[in-house]
C-alpha cells in the first residue's frame, strides 16, 4: 500500500470536516424535531382548551388591521380578499395596497367590491411611495383599497400601516387564500399576553390553485399532482412544524413569514416599519424586533402556531424555486451581515443553536450588553441556512463564513425617524 | 437516509393508527346526532347513549369531552356518560393537582369534563386551580368558570379580576359572557379602591344597558383620577345613554388625556344626537391624530344634518381641521350632491362658496376623488365648474 501523501491527508481532512458539519446539521434537525413536537403538543392542548366561541364574539378581543400588499395579482386577488372579509373575528379591517400593478388587479377589485374613491387624510408615519387614490368599498365597509406607485412589498406594507387604525396588524400576501379562523387562531396567543407577545406567525400550505384548496372540506386531501408543488408543501410543513415551532419555544424565531404575520403596530412603527433596503422584509423585521427588545431587555415573544392558516401559490418552475430560495438565503446573509456586531465567534456558532447566547459575551466587553445576543442571530441565520432544503445546504456554509466582517450601524439608521416623516409642531403631517 | 426513512414510515404508521382509533368515535358521534335520540325521555336517552359509548375507551372519551372543537352538545353528552360510568373519582384526582407538563394538561382536560358534565365538584376544583401558580392552569380555570351558571363562579372570577390573578381582559371576557345576569355583583366594582377594578366594572356594565339608572351610577366616574376609568365610564355611558350620558361625555371633551377625549367624542356619536355636533367639531383641530379621527367618525355617524356645524371649519386656521371638515362632508355624501347641483346651475352662491372652501381644504386629492365619483355624464360640467370657480385640478401642480 502506498504511503499517505499530503494530498490524501488534505482530502481526508476535508471529508472529516464535511462529515462533522453534516453530523452537526442532522443532530440539530433531530433536536428541532423533538422540540417542535413538544411545542406542537403543548399548543394543540392549549387549543383544545380554548373557548373560540367566546373569543369570536367578545367585544374585548383586540381588533386587527389586515394589510394585503398586491402586485400583479389579478389571478387570485378576488378569492384572497373574499377569504379575508369572511374571517371569523369580532372586529377587523382589510387594507389592500395595490403596489402599482400593471395588470387588472385594481380593476377587478373595483368591479367586485364596488370601490368608491375617497380622499382620506391619514398619517404618514412611515415613508412610502405617493398614494394615487384611496377607495372604500360600497359592499363591505371594512375594505379599503389603496392605489400607489410601485415601491415593493415593504413599501406597500408601510403604506398600509399608515392607514391602519387598530393596535394589531396582520400582514398577509396577495396570493394567499385564508381559512375562516386564521385570525382567531393567531390572535388567541396575542390576547392572552399583549405586553409580551409581539408577533405571531403560522404555517401556510402550498397549492397550484389556492382558492380551490382553501375551499375544500376539512379532512384528508389528495396530494397536488405537481411534484414541485408537493415538494414545496412538504418543505413548508418541515420548516414550520419542526423548525419554527422549536424556535418559537426557544424564543428566537427567525422569521414571521410574510404570508401570515401578526405584529403589534406600535412595535413595527417604533422600528421605522418594514425596511425597503432588504429583499425579504419579513426576515429582516423579525431580526430587528428581537434585536431591539433583547437589547433593551424588554419582554419579547414571536410565536409560531401549529396550524395551517391559508394556502398560497409556490413557484411553478424549478428555476423560480431556486431563485426564491436563493433570495431567502441572500436575505439571511444580508440581515446577519448588517446586524450591529455579529462577531467572530457568533459567525462560527452557526449552525448549532443551543449555546450561542454566551459566546460573544467576553469577546468585546465594552459592548457586552449588546453583543450578548449576537450569537443568537448568527445561529438563527445558520440554522435557517442549514435547513434550506438539500439543494441549498451548501449555501449554509457560505452563510456561516460570510456572517462576520461587519459591525455596520444599519439597524440604528433604520430606527431613526425617516426623512419623509414630517412633523409639524409635534403633529404628523396629514398631507 | 435510513433514519429519515424510518421517521417518515413511523409518521405514516402513526397516522394510520390514529385514524383507526378515531373511526369508532366518529361513528358514535354521528349516531349521537340522530334526532330521534333527542326526543326520548332523559332516562331512556341516557341508557341509549351509554350503550352507544360503552365500547369506547375512557381515555378516548376524555379527549372527546375535553376538546373545544367537538360541538358543545356532543361533548356534554360524552361528559355526562363518563360521570355515569363512574369516572368522577379519577377525573377529580386528575383535576385536583398536577406535577409535570403532561399531568397539567390532563388536569385541564379533567376540569373541562367535570364542568361540561355540570358535576358538583367542578366548582371546588376550579377554585383550587385558580390559586395554582401555573398561568396556563389559571387561564383554563378562568375560561371554565365562565361556563358555569352559578353565582359563586362569578364571585371567584371577580376575585381573580380584582386580585390580578390573571390577565384582566380574559377574566372580564368570561364575566361578560357569564350565563346568568350578575349586575349586582359588578356594581360594587365601581367603588373599588383599585383603578383596574373600577375600569372593568364600568366596562362590564355595558352588557346591562337596558337597566334604568346606570348612567347615574357611571357619571361620578368621569371625575375619577385614573384616565383609564374615565375612558371606560364615558365609553359605557355612550352605550347606556340616559340623561347623565351627554353632559358627562361633553365634560370629558376637554380632558387632558387624549384617549379620554377620543372616547368622549365617540360616546357622543353613540348617542346619535345631532345637537351635540357643535361640541365635537372643535376636536377636528385637536393636537392628537386619534382624537381628530374620532371627531371625524363621530360627526359622520351623526349624519348629514351636522353640516352647518362643520362648514365653518373649512376656513379654520388649522390645516388638519380644514381637511378633516372636508373629509367629513365628503364621507357624508354632501359634496357629491352639491357639486352636481352646482353643475346643473341650481346651487345658491353661498353653496358655491362652501364648495370652493371644501376644495381648498381638501386640496387636489379631494377634488380628484370627487370628480371620479360623479356620474360620467356630469364630469364635463364638473370640470367646467372647477375651471370657473378656480379650483385646482387633481394632479396639477
Structure description:
The complex is a heterodimer of chains A (431) and B (397). Chain A is globular. Chain A is α/β, with parallel strands linked by helices. Chain A has helices spanning 6-49, 52-57, 77-85, 105-113, 153-163, 182-192, 210-215, 227-250, 265-270, 281-295, 318-337, 344-349, 356-359, 368-371, 374-387, 393-402, 410-415; strands spanning 64-70, 92-99, 115-118, 131-137, 143-148, 168-172, 176-178, 197-206, 260-264, 301-312, 423-424, 427-428. In chain A, helix 1 (6-49) crosses helix 8 (227-250). In chain A, 48% of the residues lie in helices and 16% in strands. Chain B has 397 residues and is an all-alpha fold. Helices cover 68% and strands 0% of the residues of chain B. Chain B is built from 24 helices and no strands. Chain B is elongated and about 85 Å long. Chain B starts with a helix and ends in an 8-residue tail after the last helix. The chains are: A alpha/beta (431), B mainly alpha (397).
Which key terms come to mind for this protein?
heterodimer, A: 431 residues, alpha/beta, Spore Coat Polysaccharide Biosynthesis Protein SpsA, Chain A, 2 domains, ten-stranded mixed sheet, two-stranded antiparallel ribbon, 17 helices, 48% helix, 16% strand, globular, disordered C terminus, B: 397 residues, mainly alpha, 68% helix
Radius of gyration of chain A, rounded? 22 Å
CATH class assignment of the largest domain in chain A: Alpha Beta
The tally of beta strands of chain A, per DSSP, is 12
Radius of gyration of chain B: 31 Å
Low-pLDDT runs of 5+ residues of chain A are 341-431
Q: How many DSSP H or I helices of chain B?
A: 24
Question: What integer is the average pLDDT of chain B?
Answer: 88
Measured by residues with Cβ under 8 Å of the partner chain's Cβ, the largest interface is: A-B, 36 and 47 residues
Main β-sheet of chain A: number of strands, strand sense, barrel status? 10 strands, mixed
Order of helices and strands of chain B: HHHHHHHHHHHHHHHHHHHHHHHH
